Amino acid sequence: MDDILIFGHKNPDTDSICSSLVAEKIASNNGWKAKAVRLGNINKETQFILNYLGIDAPPLISKVEDGQSVILVDHNEFSQSVDNIENAKIEAVTDHHRIANFQTSEPLYYTAKPYGCTCTILYEEFKSYSYMKIEKKEAILMLSAIISDTLLFKSPTCTKHDKTAAEELAKIANIDINTYGLDLLKAGTDLSDFSPYELINIDSKDFVKNTFKFRIAQVNTACINDVLKNKDDIKLAISRSISANNLNLSILLITDIINSDSQAIVLGNDTSVFEQTYNIKLIDDMAFLKGVVSRKKQVAPLLLNNID
Length: 308
Ligand code: MG
Ligand code: MG
Ligand code: MG
Known about the structure:
Elements: E1 4-7, H1 14-29, E2 34-36, H2 44-53, E3 69-73, E4 89-95, E5 109-112, H3 118-128, H4 136-149, H5 160-173, H6 177-188, H7 196-199, E6 204-209, E7 212-221, H8 224-228, H9 231-245, E8 249-256, E9 261-267, H10 271-278, E10 286-289, H11 295-305
The protein binds magnesium ion (3 copies).
Residues 9, 13, 15-16, 74 line the site of one magnesium ion.
């Protein structure tokens, strides 16, 4: 039998990569033949962790064969998953997002919890097996993902479960959360050698409601104005991606991880949806969103509610 493939979403973030590696460990501890893979480039934040641990990234895949057994972590929407996911056999899902456009023909394991991070769910699963022990490597993977997804506990997505898990994992890993966490987040804000095209694809997710297709990309920075120096080229790259992908709307969130605000660049034929959602007028295709850092909680659901 072929290995079960475990992967997170396209344009993988730290949680997608760390969750797939941790899920691989849990699966193999349970005697499953499973292998972590990834659906896109490793971002700099995730690379920091891989370097810290001295491990390689999971291998890259772009599509799956019909009937391939898969485990999804950190996503469930097919628009964010591997090509040909419709024809794969989904054995299990572990996720912390809304459930949408998801359908299987056979029964499956499905764990969804509204936590700040998929790795927090995996941490609880790990602990639920009395015969498994969390080793330092897995502790660092999970701790890193929690720090990343919750922006060091500052995101409104962060729950007490995430905080508790991180504290216990930090003990196992013998790591100071704040020192390590700031280094980790800082590694992800180095956007200097990305082209505008690469920048808007570091962390980009597509959403579909009826026939309305929109994209929300996000980058973290310690200084929004640094990113905006390239504003015109970034806008051009977004405009091109709108035509290439037939998007109604495309939003880039430039998130200031120090002050917890975001600058949005908003383009497309249906920017009025964005304006209505936030009761805001775009100026120069931009809007400042005070206190907004979470795509999942503070952007995507609000927009989805305004699309019929
Ligand atoms: Mg993710
Ligand atoms: Mg996540
Ligand atoms: Mg994220």
